[in-house]
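Render YARHG domain-containing protein in 3D.
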Amino acid sequence: MKQLLYLLFFCSCAVQAQEQKYILLDSITSNYTVKKYTLSTLPYKVDYEIEIYNVFSKNYGKDLDSDFIVLFSVLPDLETKSNWEEIDFKKVQNNLFSAKKLFEGLENKMLGYNIISEKEIKPIPNNLKLVKKVKNTYYVSKECMAEPFYCIDSPEQMIIATGNYIINTHQPIVPITLLKEVYQKKVNTKFPLDWNEYPPIEIPKHQEHIYLANIEEKEGNTIYYFYQFANVFDRGIYEFAYIKNKGIVAGTYDDYFFPKGKVYYRGGDWLKVRRPYKEELLWAEELKKEWAEKEKAKK
């Protein structure tokens, strides 16, 4: 009998752990500054859009050491050929993640607090999905990634803790090719970011980091190029471009479009996806248009 109770308790916990969580886009935009960008997947040989939402913390840009961003990436389902599907709000309302708690987990992580209680601050759920309202109809994102980032400008002389959630714009420039060279000399093993390696090489938690790959000036913007040195399941966007006050404006989603290992059959336009010959970022169409207009004005 006791074993049966343990089994029922375990099953109950498992169901709760897998329970889908939702967050309302309207609630996010009413509480925070949000910058939305559209990325085209044409470099992957399929014509779809990725919608990214940069959600800025209330103290972002106020020199209070609390520049936080949560990046929502709404990815297309190439089999059903859509990013969103209609959903009954009754299914959503009892499983909502409060927009007001969006940054609590990141602040807790940054400060190093380890709260264990019934009121423990929860991180953003891994299965969080974005829900938007169009007129009187609700739509849920089919594939959604939510990633929190802590943006800092720490001098090279100040050593900070590593982590694949810290975007540090003032660190040494280390392109992927250089990191690979140094890594293989030191660790004497295959490089974890090589896409032809399977099974993936495990990256120890203490080595996870967001590296600065390059800095570029363009049309009055300073663009910082980063990449995540982290395990596949610990990252969403892989390489990305960041502009202060604009957020993440470009990126790659190789882990989603080109997963390693055994992949179950996926039909539709998944059969048309091709990896670019040369790695390239998917840029915000809004930014490309802005830059094109500035170039045109110069002529």
